[in-house]
Amino acid sequence: MAKIYLLNNQKFDDVVNLEVFKVQSLKFDIDLTNYDALIFTSKSAIFALEENKIDWKNKASYVIAKATSQIAEKYGANVVFTGENGHGNEFAKELIPYLKDKKVLYVKASKTVSNLLSILKDNGINIDELVSYETICNKNLKEIELEDDSTIIFTSPSSVECFFKKFSWNSSFKAIVIGKTTAYYLPKEIKNYQISQTTNVSECIKLAKLYYS
User: Fold this and answer.
1) 58 pLDDT more than 70
2) Which residue(s) pair with 45 in the sheet?
């Protein structure tokens, strides 16, 4: 059976981790007293708040997808809304009716690919941003020879960028992509790929086994 390579450090049976990038929390301090709501599009933003010992859990949290929402709830967060779509721009549109007359903080990465912030601002939402973490390519990753007919699971635009800094694409490879935004960043020569219907790594694994096992 050809191998399935997952481009992050989450562990699954019969899947090989190829950690092409690292997530680093940044150092910051912020007083959330004047904010009514927090927006999360990644679990890494939650981890960054925790690592910086920010008092955030009593604020209303608006979270992009179920997997991230579950992590927030494990930390005791006040999750009041979880997005249905799992994609940044669509999530922003879902949020508009809930955030009118609220002071909002978007806890985000140093680089983002969605227009969430501008969409909300354009719709009159009073929103600030906090850059809480960054994604960097893993310079310590050893180059290995990937097996023919392997399936590569791309979990973010960063995973695409960092993978192709280390590896070349073999025409026998197949790809699973976590969402439409990540698919947009694939090189044009990659034709053989499937997009997960939900932005969930577990669903990507199931898809890989269903289509390419």
Assistant:
1) yes
2) none
